[in-house]
Structures are given as structure tokens and as C-alpha cells.
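User: Need the bound-state model for adenosine-5'-triphosphate:
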Amino acid sequence: MKSPEEQQNRSGQPTVSVRFEDVSKRYADGTMGADSLELDCPAGKITVFVGPSGCGKTTSLRMINRMITPTSGRILIGRADVSTMNESALRREMGYVIQNAGLFPHRTILDNIATVPVLLGTSHREARVQALGLMERVGLDPAMGKRYPYQLSGGQQQRVGVARALAANPPVLLMDEPFSAVDPVVRGELQSELLRLQQEIGKTIVFVTHDMDEAVRLADQIVVFQKGGTIAQVAAPEVLLTAPASEFVRNFTGGDSGVKWLSLMPSSGIVLSLEAVVDVSESAAGSPSWRLLTDSDRGIVGWLRPGSSPRSLDVIPCRRTFTFGVDNMRAALDSALLSPAGLAAAVDASGNLLGLADLPSLEPAIRGQRSKIHV
Ligand SMILES: Nc1ncnc2c1ncn2[C@@H]1O[C@H](COP(=O)(O)OP(=O)(O)OP(=O)(O)O)[C@@H](O)[C@H]1O
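Assistant: Bound-state model below.
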């Protein structure tokens, strides 16, 4: 039997926990970046660090991959003490994603993704083949592999950043505000994509953000930091919102905001309909209302304008979908509000359409969950 520090994810790969044992970091000027941290980031789960600026989130994250050396205490990856690992073991164990992706500007996308495997001894050819597969996995067209970073949008660059961090198939993924530099719509898409990907890869993810909504949406466990590099509370999102350990946590997490609760409600209770869906191969005439046009595999083409026939391909892009049962009610509501039809588009893990839901039909699903909140 495996110890709690070393488990297997759904793909049968080993996953490891990240443990802080009485870890402190005192900078040269005496500032405490982290103070006596005791923390367990469970294997195969997403742990999100939140807290006001300067409270030690980045310091704590960077001590995991030794970009910052603790003054005292130790950090364990599974059973291995990080301070004793050599360079290649660190690279193999941990992927790192940062804001603005931090890609090498003079390398193609494929070579950016292939960087770590090549450093670890994989041939260029083999690493590029793997990189193509990873591009697909993070939702990028492999044809972009020959481009350079400046030829990609901010959101696409972030996806490359994630692919690069996953390239050596590390059990641990460290993400420091990875989605902060993109607009809110793209940010929502990247969050959905990460949740979808995590269902497949089941990595141990440690994620830093300033955004409480992002934390609630992504986290299995949230760590709230406070001034001086100490931890105010560690809890699952719903516990944090229902039972904040202090006034500071209540104010910081916004547990008294009704809208936040939407992020805790699963989307699986929504009743879907295919009524306003039309296939490109249909020779139907125009309809007075918006419809969602799909290809024959239920891939989304876009919102078909009222009055246009399916074959005209007179569409505007479907800006936001939600992954049914994976994304929360807030993502479903976003999807409906951002659609010209006022309809939320539910997709499966492959991004194919499952069905649509209008705003009134979201309400019963929200009502059904409301009673669970008032514990
Ligand atoms: N090299 C350094 N020398 C001295 N103090 C530092 C150094 N790096 C960080 N600090 C201080 O340590 C504290 C924690 O910084 P850290 O960057 O970890 O906070 P953070 O929570 O990630 O902040 P933000 O949300 O603004 O990114 C801050 O007071 C910061 O000013």
C-alpha cells in the first residue's frame, strides 16, 4: 500500500504530496517572507494560495522548487527533502508556470515546450513529437508549433506555458498567477481548461492567485496567508466561506457575497436542451432566434444569426462554454450572459456540445443548491 505522500492519479501515474514542515524565510533585511509554515498540499489535488499583497505567497511557492532557499525547516516532495535533490530531479518533479508565460522569445513554440525534456536527455525529435501532443492537450492547434511566442495571443502563450510545464510529466505543477495577465473572458477559458486537464492528469498543483473567485473555482484546498508570512486558514472553498476562522478571513474571502456561492455550486443539476442547436449539414431555413451551429461531431462552430440558414455560416464566436459537471454554476451563468442568445452552452471533456440552457432553466439548479449552503 502506498503512503499518503505517494499515490497514483487516474492515469496510474504516481502523484506526491508537498509538505512544509516548520518552514520560515527571513530575508536579509529581516522581512519574514514565510513564518513557521506547517502545510500539507495533498497529492493529485489543487492547493491555491491567496492573501493580500506581500503576505508571502510567492516566497512560499518558490521555496518548493528552491528558487528561494528557506532559512529553516524543510519541504518534502513525497518523501524527498527538496534541499537534497539535484537539478535534474527537481526539473523532473516540478513544472513551473508564471504570469505572462515567460516563454523564450527566440525559440519556436515547439522548442519552448521541448526545452525541459531535451535538457533531461530526450532527443530533439522525440521531444518535438511529444510537444505536438501536448499542444493538443492544452487546446492549441499544433499548426502553431512553428510560430514564435510574439505571434500568439496572451491566452495562447499561457497555454504554451502550461504545456511546457507539463512536458517532463512532473507530478507537481507550480503556478504563480498564471492567468493574471489575460482578459477576464480568456481567463475564464483558461480556468476551465485547467480543470478539464486536471481531470485527466491529476497532478499535485500549487497555484498562487490574488483573485478569490479564481481560488474558489479551482481549489480543492485554499490556503489564506496573512501579513508576516503566516497562514490564517487552510480549508476547502466551501468550508472557508461557511466557517471562516477569523474576521480577517471572512473579509478577505468575501464569504458574505452571495455571488461567490455560485462558484461552489456544481453545474451537473442543469437540465440541457438541444432545441436551439442546428447542424451545418442541415438545409433548414433561417429561424427568428439565435441558434448554436455545430459540425456533425457536435463541435461548436458559433452562434448563427437570426434569419440565417445553417449553410450560410453567418456566425459569431461562442465566447464561453462550461464543462458540464466539472465547471460550476458561475461558469454556466457566464456562458449564458456572454452569449448573444442568452443561452449557456454545456460541453463534454472534449469540448463537444452536450446541450444548451437558458437563464430561467439555471434557476432551479441554483435553488436546489441554495439549501445546502445554509448549514
Ligand atoms: N528579496 C527580498 N528581499 C527582502 N524582502 C523580500 C524579498 N522578496 C520578497 N520580500 C518581501 O517578503 C514579503 C513576501 O513577499 P512575496 O512576494 O512572497 O509576497 P506575495 O504574497 O507573493 O505578494 P504579491 O501578492 O504582491 O505578489 C514581502 O513583504 C516582500 O516585500
